[in-house]
Structure formats: C-alpha cells, structure tokens
Amino acid sequence: MTRLRTTAVHGGRDDLADLGVHALPIDLSTTYPIPDQTEGGYALQAFAEGAAHATSPVYSRLHNPTVARFEQALAALEGTSAAVAFGSGMAAVTAVVQAACVLTGKTHVVAVRPIYGGTDHLLSSGLLGVRTTYATADEVADAITPETGLVVVETPANPNLDLLDIAAVVARAGDVPVVVDNTFATPVLQNPAAHGATYVLHSGTKYLGGHGDVLGGVVACDEEHAAPLRQVRIITGAVLHPLGGYLMHRGLATLPLRVEAAQRGAVELAARLDAHPGTGLVRHPSLPGADPAGLIGTQMRGPGAMLAFTTREDPAAVVRRLRLVTPAVSLGSVDTLIEHPAALTHRLVPDAAREASGVPANLLRLSVGLEDVEDIWDDLDQALSGPCEQDYIKPSSSGFREPAASH
Question: What's the pTM?
Fold first, then answer.
C-alpha cells in the first residue's frame, strides 16, 4: 500500500504505460464506434444499471476514460472502492440526495448546520421533494425517523470551521447513510470513509483542482452506493467534462504539497489574527480550545488551510481595503481568497438559522493560498487596522464608517 504523496502522484495512471504515454491523455470524444451493435446495446444496458465499466464507452454521457482515471485516483486517496464525478459540487450533492432519498423513497434528510450555503438552500428548498430537519450533531439520533434516507454533515464546517466527530455522528445515524462534505479537509487531512461515512463529497472546484480554473464535484464511496450515483448522473446528464476530469486529476499530484504549505500559513495567520485588535472571534482548528474532542491527530491529520474571523468594523469595509488578498467566493486556490458568508455563500440561509449555527453577520472566511505568509499578513493587517483618517466620509446606515475611496 503506497503512502499518501505517492498515491496522489500515481493514482489513476495504471493504464498509461499500455497506452504508450506519460502525461494524462484527454479523451474528448462524445461518441464511440460500435461495430457490433448488439454488444454495444449490452454495454449501454450495463451503464444504465450503474456499472463502472463496459465493453464500449458507447457515449460520453455514459462513460469517459479521462474522467474514469480521475475517479480511480480520488477513490485511492479516500480509501474507497469507487468514486463518481459530476459537473459541479452542487451536482454531486444533488445526486447523493437523489440516490439516497428519492430513489429509495426515504425522503427525509437530517442535516447538521453549518454546511455550505448552496447545500443548505438545496435541502430547504423542497426542490428535490425531500423534507429536511436541521439538528445539532448531538441531536442526530433523535431527529431520525423511519423515512430518513440521509444525514448530511460537513467537517470542518463551512464557514466557521466547526469540527464534528464523524464516527460519533455515524453511530447516532445507525443504518441511515451519512454524507460528509470533505472539501475543506481534502483527502490529505481526513478520510471520512475510514470513520464510517457512506459518502465522501468534494467540490473538486476547490483544492482538488487547486488553481481556480475548473468546475467539478466528486463522491467517493463503495461500489454498492456508487452504482445509483452513476444512474442518476446518466439520467440527469450531470456529467463532468473530460477537460475538467483531466485538470482535477492533474491537480491531485500536487494536492498534498499545496495543502501542507497553505496549512502552515493558516496556522501562522490564525495566531496573528487572534491577537489583532481589529478582530473578534477567530476560528481555526489550531487555536486553543478549537478542538475540544481532540480530533486533530485522530480524525484529522492537520488543522487545514481555511480560517474565519469576525471583524470589529463593517466586514465589507475591511474587504474593500485589501490589495493582495482576492475578494471572491470559492476556496482552495493557489492565491488567498476572502469572502463574507452572510452576504455571499450563505446569503440564502435564513439569518436566524445562520446566526444560531455559529455564523455571525460580521464573519469573514479566508482561504489561505501559497503566497509568502508575510505578504498575506501585511495586507490583512492594514485592512483590519482601518482606513486613513482622511478616507472617512460619513457613517453609513449600518452605523459603520465607510471609506471615501480606495487608496
């Protein structure tokens, strides 16, 4: 069994030598010749029933070799027998809900907040015909009914970095499958399947791709649960484009190095932000008291590169003063990104529910990149220290002073 960094480099590449190539090939075919139409029909039927492979790809909505290599590589990193890739992280979330709830007729979901705002909104919208009960991790067992088809958690949580004991949630869920959004931790730092999770979800747009230039999602699981996911993907057409599969597969080779480097920066920045007069509450698993259950070193191999902090001032004003850090949603890129969850990623979560789950209106989420940590700190420090006196104009309606112009 190879170690993590070796698996990240070599996973999903077993057939390259037989193909006579070294770099990952990109298969852009939408359709494939089928000389034996009867055999092609059997292949189509196999894919429609959820098979991972057949005698012919037939059509790229059913199977694509480039995407399949990425799936094999991600499954190897997560320690599962299979993975199923989708056109976006939200397509992956949707497929899990459809496979676990809609296809089984168990249309009740239990979700632990906070989770990514898009997932929260999907579950509460009723769009998929499911009913959702939001509960704390300790309340999961009491929230489950005979109609419950899925338990949804994210750890570290988006955006406040709450840590959940996956094994404890799985035990409370009993026979109900648990999906863990592992986007923040990545398989470098956490493998939820090893702690009993049925589905391990990633927005591949984030750390897996790692460069802010690809959209995709992937779910790692065992083969039994992968087959219904493939059926959903075929029927709904929520496929990952081969170029996306190639870019995310290529990204896996450097994933451990990127995560480890960004994590070192996050640990340093969290400590400095915690002491800064312009911040209030700073959230990062490395800080004292942030990991009361001792999950770092047991469930997780490190605290990660995401952090969050509240501001003493209007968070929008702080963001406007940044010069190096990129104000944008998403995360896990080589450059440092910052966003205001209440205004953006969690805007569609009701204010009261958002606040109750530990996501106050003045919280900023920071995805630490690979820049020199001193340069990131210089930018954060000047933004949090407030504008020059001459930049003040008048109090805004919120009561915060707003700068007159950027400088």
Answer: 0.93
Question: Does domain 255-403 match CATH 3.90.1150.10?
Answer: yes
CATH number of 4-253: 3.40.640.10
Report residue 124: phi and psi, to 5°: -90, -10
Q: Kindly report, residue by residue over 258-299, the tens digit of the pLDDT.
A: 999 999 999 999 999 999 999 999 999 999 999 999 999 999
Catalytic center residues: 61, 116, 181, 206
Domain ranges of the chain: 4-253, 255-403
Amino acid present at 393: I
CA distances (Å), origin 343, targets 149, 169, 295, 315, 399: 31, 30, 30, 10, 17
Asked if residues 342 and 160 have their Cβ atoms less than 8 Å apart, the reply is no
| Long-range interactions of 349-357: CB distance < 8 A, separation 24+ | 349/113, 349/114, 349/117, 349/120, 349/121, 353/113, 353/134, 354/114, 356/113, 357/113, 357/114, 357/160
- C-alpha–C-alpha distance, residues 407 and 397, integer Å: 23
Contact indicator for 140, 110 with CB cutoff of 8 Å: yes
Helix (H) / strand (E) element for 393: namely strand 392-395
Contact in structure between 102 and 130 (CB atoms under 8 Å)? yes
